[in-house]
Design goal:
It is found in: Nucleus. One of its GO terms (cellular component) is nucleus. Its main location: nucleus. One of its GO terms (biological process) is DNA repair. The chain is mostly helical. It folds into two domains: 121 residues; 82 residues, no CATH class. 65% of the residues lie in helices and 0% in strands. α1 runs parallel beside α3, α5 runs parallel beside α7 and α6 runs parallel beside α8. The longest helix is centred in the middle third of the chain and has 17 residues. The chain is elongated, with a radius of gyration of 19 Å.
Length: 207
């Protein structure tokens, strides 16, 4: 069964070439996978990570807008079932430090930002892991997480600060970080955030 889904996933690479005479066939395949929720059955397999990692790599490396939009539909329609697998992947990379899990590991923060833009609910279990990283003893690691969270908290339609107060409070603590670049990044975030979220002014300017 795993081999079958890996084979199906590899077929989606055909979406890269919109001028190919076979493009409509691959587009139809992705459309049906999205609406029928075919990948849900993968969760019954002992190790579904390989399938979903390959799926993410294939879909997010594809720049075709129509295909990308359908990929987003697929993720949105399977949020509740796919979220545990996403959490497991990020747990291995962020908490356990297994950079060998996938080629995606080196792009982990970019992937988090992309998934958050699609549907924040895909990352419900990942946010505590980011809070853990904010408390890292490594200043550069904290800086990387602050830069990521600044984008998530500051984006125009984000309600993350209200939905996840522990993470927000931990993030605010970085304004007093001992690592100067972290403090500078936090201050830079504040001015940008106030433009999109004036309701957070009290948190950002308070004592």
């Amino acid at each position: 069964m795993q081999d079958i889904f890996l084979f199906i996933t590899r077929q989606l690479k055909g979406l890269e070439d919109t001028k190919s005479p076979q493009f409509n066939r691959y587009f139809y395949l992705l459309e049906n996978l999205a609406w029928v929720k075919s990948y849900n059955i993968c969760f019954e397999l002992e190790d579904c990570n390989e399938i979903f990692i390959q799926l993410f790599k294939t879909l997010f490396s594809n720049l075709n807008k129509q295909a990308f939009d359908l990929a987003k539909v697929l993720l949105k329609r399977t949020v509740q079932t796919i979220e545990p697998c996403i959490a497991n992947f990020f747990n291995q990379v962020l908490v356990l430090g297994k950079s060998s899990v996938s080629d995606l590991s080196e792009h982990v923060f970019d992937l988090i930002q992309e998934l958050f833009a699609i549907d924040p609910n895909l990352l419900v279990s990942v946010m505590p892991q980011l809070e853990f990283k904010l408390k890292s003893n490594d200043g550069e690691e904290r800086l990387a997480v602050v830069k990521l969270l600044a984008k998530l908290f500051g984006s125009k339609d984000s309600d993350l600060a209200n939905q996840n107060r522990p993470l927000w409070q931990c993030f605010l603590g970085r304004f007093n970080d001992i690592h100067v670049p972290v403090r500078l990044e936090s201050v830079k975030f504040a001015s940008h955030c106030l433009m999109n979220h004036p309701d957070l002014a009290k948190d950002l300017t308070g004592p």
